[in-house]
Amino acid sequence: MADEDEVKEANQGTVVSIRGSVVDALFPERIPAIYNLLHTGEGGKIKIEVITHLDSRRVRGIALTPTQGLALGAAVEDSGAPIQVPMGERLL
């Protein structure tokens, strides 16, 4: 049942502009926080980091992966968290 709750709470938006690695997305319900990670494209393979709020419903982000195949109107999902990197002894 936890999976069903997560699906209901997922913050969904749509791609409204693509200019190379710069992607704008519209979120009708709630706007993602700056630095949040967004997933879009086939299977959520395109990762975008929110860099600014354009207004109360639109964000601008930088794609961290190639945007090839991304189209206007594509679904975007807010991960609800910033980019996370695993840390270990070797990194420290």
Describe the structure.
It contains 1 helix and 6 strands. With 92 residues, the chain is mainly β. It has a 6-stranded antiparallel β-barrel. The mean pLDDT is 90.
Element layout with pairings:
Layout: H1 2-9, E1 11-19, E2 22-26, E3 36-40, E4 46-53, E5 58-63, E6 75-82
Antiparallel strand pairs: 1-2, 1-6, 2-5, 3-4, 3-6, 4-5
In percent, how much strand structure appears in the residues? 35-45%
Query: How many strands, which pairing sense, and closed or not: the largest β-sheet?
Result: 6 strands, antiparallel, barrel
Uncertain regions spanning at least 5 consecutive residues:
none
Q: Distance between the terminal alpha carbons, to the nearest Å?
A: 38 Å
Please give the order of strands in the largest beta sheet: 1-2-5-4-3-6
Task: Indicate the overall shape.
Answer: globular
The helix-strand sequence is: HEEEEEE
Number of DSSP E strands: 6
Structural class designation: mainly beta
Tally the helices.
1
In helices, the fraction of residues equals: under 10%
> Mean of the pLDDT scores?
90
| Rg over CA atoms | 14 Å
Short structural summary:
This protein is mainly beta and 92 residues long. Helix content is 9%, strand content 45%. The protein has a 6-stranded antiparallel beta barrel.
Key attributes of the depicted protein:
single chain, 92 residues, six-stranded antiparallel beta barrel, 9% helix, 45% strand
